[in-house]
Every structure is written in structure tokens, then in C-alpha cells.
Amino acid sequence: MKNILLFGAGKSATSLIDYLLANAPRQKWHITVADHDLMLIKSKTGKSYYATPAAIDIKDQAARQQLIQETDLVISLLPPHLHITVAKDCLQFHKNLLTASYIDPEVRKLEKDIEKAGLLFMYEMGLDPGIDHMSAMKLIHSIEKKGGQIFSFKSYCGGLISPESLDNPWQYKISWNARNVVMAGASGAIYREKGKTREVAYEQLFDHNKTIQVPGLGKLAYYPNRDSLGYMESYKLENIATFMRATLRFPDFCEGWNALIKLGLTGENGKIQTDHLTCFDWATRHIEGVDKQAGHEEVMARFLNVSSKSKVIRQLKFLGLLNGDQINLGEKTDAEVLQHLVEDKLKMEPSDKDMIVMMHEIEFERRNMATRMHSYMITQGEDNVRTAMAKTVGLPLGILAKLLLQEKITLTGLRIPVMPEIYNPVLKELEEFDIRFEESFE
């Protein structure tokens, strides 16, 4: 029997747990799922003979280390800042580690030790980062193998809601960690365009002028991800003129989020007392000389320089920012208040379906002919639990876990999935779950 230990049973874990349990009888696996919420674990594992729920506080060192010592492979879907705790234990007890999160500076410090121990710590093995790396590298390697010279690379990905479930003015619902949605883009972005390094401050990021056409969906807006330049080396495209990774949204979302940033409602600096504070008073805290006699719509519209009948005002109204309801959450940062409202007003209903859209746009020259290729994937969720987000984040981890335990992968070190021995088998099996790319050339 091989033992797999999964930390985290939240939104992104559903399809991964399904996959591991479906494979457990044939592969002779036992899966331990550790989370602080026992009911949540049981809702995902059911009564499976192959699963053991472990309700633990991740900060409880003795409990955590005992679980890690008894397993053959660790998968972490914890919030990003907690991975390092697990990573250090995996190093100490000589266990391979898989996670969907970005490589952070803390784990970078362990790089030499991981290599020396002959362990594999595979980070960025989810959707974005994850499937984006694998699908992009497959294209890049195939173009280069045929003698193509790449001069522009753009990659876009978004966790969206299926058009049939779009029933609010934001054209958005929460299909993953709400805090990540609220904090997205907060550190601005840096990328390369036509040979120049471009930096965009958070305040300009959601400027909704930039759109791309996606087959079957029409126009989607995009904003560049925090640091695209860091991946030029990983993709071995250090010398190309244009390199950008970006996030996709329906255009209305970017317009509304821009308004929230202008109102100063996304910040993390300092806490405010929200007891007896109304949503409207909170939302207009940074507007000087608010005329309390004027209508709430009028105050907002004047400040944002839009019509009081505009879509942006409808969006703010939908979030509850124009009403007199009290927040009553105690001391919170603006971002925490906003997260609370977003989780409440933009939650997915049981029948809602989400959708993942990913697209790569690569321009290259071969035999003196410039070619632009598009490669895109659209994946639909089944409902508000078995979401496209859970599928695309969880399945790559599950597939790699299987390959590792079957000893088909011999890689070691701190890695992200950019090599053929990872991306070929993983992308191939993802197609069995309807996660596949279509390509077109001009």
C-alpha cells in the first residue's frame, strides 16, 4: 500500500480527491486528507474505504509531522504562506512534495538541500500556474524543433462563469479562494512589450481597454499578471521582444473593479472599526465632503464621473455598497470587508457552472515567414462543487502523483512543470477529462 497525504480540503481539492479515490483500488493507495474542518473533509471523501480524514491544526507541529512521517507523498493545497511549513517537514522526513502554488522566496532557500536529498518538490502544478506552463512549453518546444524563431509570447488564463450562469452586473462569481480574487493584481505588473520593459501600477491595471477575441466567447478583457519577466528564463525565451502572462475577465468586471480601487476599498493598510458602520459610509470614507443629503447613487456617480444610471453604479449597488446596512465585523481592513461582501453577493449558486479559459498567442518566424498561432482551451464545470477550477487545479496534481508513485518520473530538485517528461503524460491524460487545446495558425 502507498500512502498519499493531502493538506487542504477546500474548493480546489474536490476533483483531486475524486481522482485519487478513483485510482486508489487499482493503484493500491490510501489517502489521508488533513484539514482543520472535519465536516468539510468528510463531504469530499464520503465513506470511502481508501480515505482517512485527519482534522488537524496545521500549526500543530507534532500532529503535522506524524502525518508526514507516515506517508509516501505529500500534496499541499494549503494557503500559499503555509506551504513552507510543510516543505521544511518534507525535507526533514525525506518526502516528495507537490503543490499548485507559486515558488516563493522561502522555498528557494531550500533549493540546494532539496537537490542534495534527491527529492522532487514540484511547485506550480495546478492550472495557472501549471497547465499554462505545460501547454506553453509543449508549443514552444514544437516550434523550436521545426526551426521556428519565436519573437512574441502572450499567455492568458481566467477562471470565469459560464455564459448561462451570468446573472449579475459583475459578470463574475467566486469559483475559488475569494481572498485571492480581492488581492489579485495588488502588487501591479511587469512584462515586456516590443523590446521594452513595461510596469503597470495597481491603480492602472484594470483599465478596461485591453481585450482579446476568444473563439465561441467573443471579447474578453485582460490585465497583465504580477511578474511575467521571471518566466522568460524558465521558458528559455530570455531574448524575445514581447513576453506577457495575463488574467482574463469579462469586460464589465474590470470596469467595476477599477471603481473599487478608485474608492480605496481594496487596501490592506490599517484596520477600521466596522461595528455600526454602514456599507455606504464605509464605501465613501475616502470621498471628501460627502453631501449626506444627496442620493447615494448621486454621490458615487459624481465621484466616479459616471452617470447615476450607469453599469458601474448598478455593480456597486449589487455589492450592497449603496445601502444603509451595518457591516458589524469588528476591526477589519478594507480588503477584508470587501472579501466578506464579495463572498456573500458573488457566490456561486448550486446550479451555477464556472468556466476556465486559457489561450496562448505565439508569433514566430520560420523560413522567412511570420506566423501567429493561437492555442486555446475552454473547460466547463459541472456545478458549484465540481467546478472547472477544481478540475484544472486538482487533476494535474493527481496525475503527477500517480506517475511518481508508479516510479515513471525520476526528476529531483525544486521544479516547475516545463519539461517533456512531465508535460507529455500529464497533458495526454488531461484530455480524458475534456481538458484539451485547439490550435489555429495565421
From TrEMBL:
The keyword Glycosyltransferase does not apply. Residues 4-121 form the Saccharopine dehydrogenase NADP binding domain. GO terms for molecular function: saccharopine dehydrogenase activity. Keywords: Oxidoreductase. One of its GO terms (biological process) is lysine biosynthetic process via aminoadipic acid. GO terms for cellular component: cytoplasm. InterPro entries: AASS, NAD(P)-bd_dom_sf, Sacchrp_dh-like_C, Sacchrp_dh_NADP-bd. Residues 126-432 form the Saccharopine dehydrogenase-like C-terminal domain. The keyword Oxidoreductase applies. This is Saccharopine dehydrogenase.
